[in-house]
Amino acid sequence: MVSATEIWKSTSDKLEAAAEANAAQLSAAADLLLGVIRADALVFTAGAGHSLAAVAETFYRAGGLACVYPVYHPELLPLHGAQQSTKTERRSGLAEEVLAERAPGPDDVLVVFSTSGVNPYPVELAAGARRRGASVIAVTSRACVAAAPRRSASTLVEEGTVVIDSLVVPGDASHPASAPRTAPLSTVVNAFLWNLILTEVFDRGAADGLDVPLWRSSNVEGGDEANAALLAKYSQRVPALR
Predict the structure, then answer these.
(1) Residues 6 or more apart whose Cβ sits within 8 Å of residue 51
(2) What stretches of the chain adopt beta strand conformation (E)?
(3) Which segments of the protein form a coiled coil according to its record (predicted)?
């Protein structure tokens, strides 16, 4: 039986590899987010299926950016219907329906999490955002994109302004190493890469005297008061904060 130490070492190695492989891309992503903050604009975040876990990681959480607009459609969440979520992600045209309600503009940035990077919803969402002048940060896996059936006119790799490669292998599983069947890594890697971007945004923002809007835990002293100011600033622009 594999030990917890072995699993940790394997996961740690993969996180380190992803960080090293994406050093320039993470810095470019931080550039885009700093531009959003300076413009008092919004960071739109999107995904489908289990990539929505990464969207939840970006939104209204302690230590997270307050200027985040989560792009969400309930039929994309497996908890609302597992098989339906897969069908919905593959339905061409849904992205434009979602963007018709609220779309990023030239000062905004869209972050799309999609490990496979080939289904119509994430690809068309990225393409639609770029047509509207927004930059797109694509968090995907180049290996998975190359291996997956092509279901759209392009792929998320082709639509990204900045492409961050999670290095997740096709199928997502990581164990056993010889023939992976379990221990999927995309959620862990996506959260790790997002937090690397946030740390660079914070450090560079602080060095420039920029006030980076970050949520605080409501369970620490002063957290509710700090968050109230952010809610007052962003809740009219981000309905999910109300």
Answers:
(1) 113, 114, 115, 122, 186, 190
(2) 43-47, 68-70, 109-113, 135-140, 162-165
(3) none
Do the beta carbons of residue 75 and residue 85 sit within 8 Å?
yes
Tokens of 199: 């740390």
Given this model, what pLDDT does residue 130 score? 98
Phi first, then psi, for residue 182 (nearest 5°) are -145, -175
Going from the C-alpha of 72 to that of each of 81, 83, 121, 204, 234, the distances in angstroms are 15, 17, 11, 30, 17
What confidence score (pLDDT) does residue 53 get?
98
pLDDT tens, position by position, 178-213: 999 999 999 999 999 999 999 999 999 999 999 999
Q: Are 41 and 67 in contact (CB under 8 A)?
A: yes
Whether pTM exceeds 0.85: yes
Query: What type of residue is 67?
Result: C
Dist CA 131 CA 126 (whole Å): 9
Taking each continuous run of H as one helix and of E as one strand, the counts in the chain are 10, 5
Give the helix, strand, coil percentages of the chain, each rounded to 5: 50, 10, 35
Cβ atoms 114, 47 nearer than 8 A: yes
d(CA 183, CA 162): 28
Residue located via tokens 């920029």: 210
* Alpha-carbon span 56 to 16, nearest angstrom: 23
Tell me how crowded residue 146 is: count the other CB atoms within 10 A of its CB: 13
- Please state, for a pLDDT cut of 90, what percent of the chain lies above it: 97
